[in-house]
Amino acid sequence: MFGCLVAGRLVQTDAVQVASDKFVFNLPDYENVNHVVVFMLGTVPFPAGMGGAVYFSIPDSASGGPVWQLLGFITNDKPSAIFKISGLKAGEGGAHPFGASSSGSPSVAQVGVSVEAVEQLAQQTPVSSAAVSTVDSFLQFTQKMLDNFYNFASSFAVSQAQMAPNPAETFIPSSCILKWYENFQRRMAQNPTFWKN
């Protein structure tokens, strides 16, 4: 019914059914995982009005038991979701009906899917650090490119006393580039799509 995908690993479709409406995937070496995708296989849909709450459990070294954190949900209308797990912290979260289902190993985390009513799913609040950035990939590229450009140009900075007269060379004050870059960032924060106009 469900699949779990981590970059660089085989797709997992072998969820362990721990209750009639609860499924768990073991995630070994979770310390090296940034994102996890949970999806429906398309073989068995959710019953009408139902969906799946997706949880993540990091082994808690203090209590020895699992602590579950809500990541989000999937439904028949939204059959897959990607979650960022690299920012989640052990010990934060709470108990959940998955109970004491534990992988038994401190280096194995778990991803759980709990079948619940869609109305209930919509009222739950996932942990905020699990949300994947919704920033446009072109915008991310542009910001990183401009950071790189400013850092590169700044690496050639010399003081006015260090400048040697060279009539063939044009000098641009680094403060001018910094001012332009800060203005660009401010405009992006106010209207992230201004560059599309």
TrEMBL record:
InterPro entries: Hikeshi-like_C, Hikeshi-like_N, OPI10
Biological process terms in GO annotation: cellular response to heat; protein import into nucleus
UniProt GO MF annotations: Hsp70 protein binding; nuclear import signal receptor activity
Domain Hikeshi-like C-terminal: 136-197
Compartments, record wording: Cytoplasm; Cytoplasm, Cytosol; Nucleus
Keyword Protein transport set for record: yes
Keywords recorded for this protein, A-Z: Cytoplasm, Nucleus, Protein transport, Transport
GO CC list: cytosol; nucleus
A Pfam cross-reference name: Hikeshi-like_C
Occurrences of domain Hikeshi-like N-terminal (ranges): 6-130
Signal peptide: none
Keyword set includes Zinc: no
Functional summary from the UniProt entry: Acts as a specific nuclear import carrier for HSP70 proteins following heat-shock stress: acts by mediating the nucleoporin-dependent translocation of ATP-bound HSP70 proteins into the nucleus. HSP70 proteins import is required to protect cells from heat shock damages. Does not translocate ADP-bound HSP70 proteins into the nucleus.
Family: Belongs to the OPI10 family.
Known partners and oligomeric status: Forms an asymmetric homodimer; required for binding and nuclear import of HSP70 proteins. Interacts with ATP-bound HSP70 proteins.
Protein name: Protein Hikeshi
Origin species: Stegastes partitus (bicolor damselfish)
Lineage: Eukaryota, Metazoa, Chordata, Craniata, Vertebrata
